[in-house]
What we know:
- It is a single chain.
- This protein is mainly α.
- The chain has helices at residues 3-12, 16-25, 27-34, 44-61, 70-88, 96-116, 122-129, 133-146, 173-187, 192-202, 208-215, 219-236; strands at 152-156, 159-162.
- It has three domains: 3-88, Four Helix Bundle (Hemerythrin (Met), subunit A); 96-165, Winged helix-like DNA-binding domain superfamily/Winged helix DNA-binding domain (Arc Repressor Mutant, subunit A, Orthogonal Bundle); 171-236, Winged helix-like DNA-binding domain superfamily/Winged helix DNA-binding domain (Arc Repressor Mutant, subunit A), CATH 1.10.10.
- It contains twelve helices and two strands.
- It has a two-stranded antiparallel ribbon.
- The longest helix is centred in the middle third of the chain and has 21 residues, at 96-116.
Amino acid sequence: xxxxxxxxxKSHEGDEExxxxxxxxxxxxxxxxVKRFYNRGAEAEDLFQIxxxxxxxxxxxxxxxxxxxxSTYAVPMISGEIRRFLRDDGMIKVSRSLKExxxxxxxxxxxxxxQLGREPTVCELAQNLQVDEEELTMxxxxxxxxxxxHRPVFQSEGQEVxxxxxxxxxxxxxxxxxxxxxxxxxxxxxxxxxxxxxxxRYFAEKTQTQVGKxxxxxxxxxxRMEKRILQNLREQI
Length: 237
């Protein structure tokens, strides 16, 4: 039996020493995720402690019947715990001007979509709003971060309803694992630059402008390339 799986099994049986050892052996994993959230207004040590809470949840909830590595299962739970901490404690700050621009961009997108019969490009949106593409990209990125699935949409008498609570909970965890395996298979068929673009955008959480600088291409090229990759993946699925 795999060393980590054996420890998880012991932990599930109430072995606190095995649980503590799992936390110790995954310290590097937690710090690796914490680094993604540097310069967000919180101390690194605080983020590490919050990350460990996510790690403990992953240990307790991990199903030994899943054919997936524990680290693969733990990463989204650790990062999710840190995100909730930053969000709930108001660490993620978005300026009023960016919020307003994101709102205007949403309205403009709807109008252009009706006129063009398709999704407008960032360039077209920027031209209509008379702003720089980079500024618009920052606003859109900020807006998507604020509109989190964990955002409260209703509060009354101590009860809170989050956006994610309004979504249908049809997928079981087993199905999510299958989807992950399918996605992994699809990603292996991409070119090296395409995989790097997806990694920078969805795992390193960089803006299209930042990705463009790393890949040596423009933000517009990144936007087009990203849409093309995602469309191809959807078609394969």
